[in-house]
Amino acid sequence: MNGTLRLAYQLLVNDRTKFTALIVGISFAVFLMVEMTSVFAGVLDHSSATVHNIGAGVWVMDPSVQTVANSIGMPDYVLDAVRSIPGVKYAVPLYSGTALLKLPGGVFQPATVVGLDDSTLVGRPRLLAGKIEDIYAESAFLAVKDSEFAKLGNPRVGSELQLNDHRVRITGIAEVVSSGLFGIPTLYTTYSRALQYIPNPRFTISYVLVEPKTSRDIPAIKRAVAALGYRAMTSREFVRSISAFYKYRTGIGTNILIMTVISFLVGLSISGQTFYTFIIENLEKFGALKAIGATNRVLIRMILFQAGFTCLTGYGLGVGLCTALILLAKLRLPSYVSVITYFNLALAFVMVLVIAAVSSYVGVRRVLRIEPFDIFRS
To answer: Which of 136, 232, 281, 378 is least crowded, fewest Cβ atoms below 10 Å from its Cβ?
Structure first.
């Protein structure tokens, strides 16, 4: 650090009250921006939990499906037609629906029931306890141990529940990649048992899971499915479609955007006003530097350094505070879905740079108008 930048640093931290106000304002703005966008990222990630957990290559569905949780039943002939498409390695049905469970204490609890193909069990979760073969036993279900597991009464292997006057016996405890968004636990069973236990409309296939022979066969499979009047999407495309629904078809995206903009404006107003006050109070010092030969270029570099140092310090503290609080919240609230991504950090960093640029511009304009004669005359 050369002499002018060292001097700029001393001028900045000399007034600890102003310096602290700048750091706190920017840190608070960064904290709000990262927190808001992280909550939104977590919502989008968990809204596609079933897609991540099943892990199918291609999903066939009704064209009106907007989210994985709101499936629309398809007739059985769709499964047979998809299996006959060239390039399809295999295709299996998947059931996804909601049921009302009765716990041992008499409490009723809604749950998501996923019915896997009886023959292949494609999409089955990894078991923590029990054997996967036991899913074929009478009344057998697998309970997913995620953030909502406690709502089932923390069952163990052998525990019994009730579903529509049917006995539900837990034969395994499983784990999945991602827990759901809507705060209800998940059970896995066979496709036929899901249809037997849960009342359904005429068409019962929620999705057809397709494994193509090669990735080059996917476009032809999509065209063939479209000719049947249905839609086929890869897992990645399905996740993007679900994310787009929550971004643009619900109020979540708009509300998060408004809160992020408000956070940015709060940081901009606090830092801009405080930095301007800092410049005003140090005009005599900048004028003195100008009188002893400091050029406008040197003064601009000093102000840019001060604004950049303050904003980057506030950015680091804000991100650190947000990370710590998210970690603490997840330890206390297992269903908390906030996720910090590189996009969140990059967005907050760009906004901090804008704050630094605006604050610098305000300071530079005032400093460049200084006349050394006026300083010494006063």
So the answer is: 378
